[in-house]
Amino acid sequence: MATPVSVRYARVEDAAEMARVNVRSWRETYRGLMADHVLDDPGLPAARERFWTAMLSDERYLANSVAVAERDGEVIGIAMAGPSRSSESQWGTQLYVLYVVAAEHGTGAGAGLLDAVIGPRDSAALWVADPNPRAQAFYRKHGFVADGTVNVEDGVREIRMVRSERQTAPRAP
């Protein structure tokens, strides 16, 4: 029986492992969508480690919520949400990152990460690669719907998915 996945807030000392998961997930998910020269760049892991170090240590990013999922002490997933960068946004929170290594898809790691960085009933927005049916289905399961907005960045087509505040029935005492 596999040990359970645990989710916790990320620390600066996690940056190298977060970069490893980030690069591995990009290569597993975006091959064919993102340019090979980007995915295969030998400097990519170091660049992502610098990115995560900054996200976890620079005061400019203190409002972000960053989490990791682990199994047996190994980081298997990463997530980051924070204030929307768009001034016309109707959503206070944007999911910027949620990656789980392919071998851990379906284990609950993604759901745990999502709930760690965005409250389960909070309104939020995110951009997801299109096509990426697995990720889009995951986000739909968690209340997000495509709003028709499309963006192309670095040759990758993305769609915006949004979630309004979710109403839940009161819990029984």
TrEMBL record:
The lineage of its organism: Bacteria, Bacillati, Actinomycetota, Actinomycetes, Micrococcales. Pfam families: Acetyltransf_10 (PF13673). GO terms for molecular function: acyltransferase activity, transferring groups other than amino-acyl groups. It comes from Arthrobacter cavernae. This is GNAT family N-acetyltransferase. Residues 5-166 form the N-acetyltransferase domain.
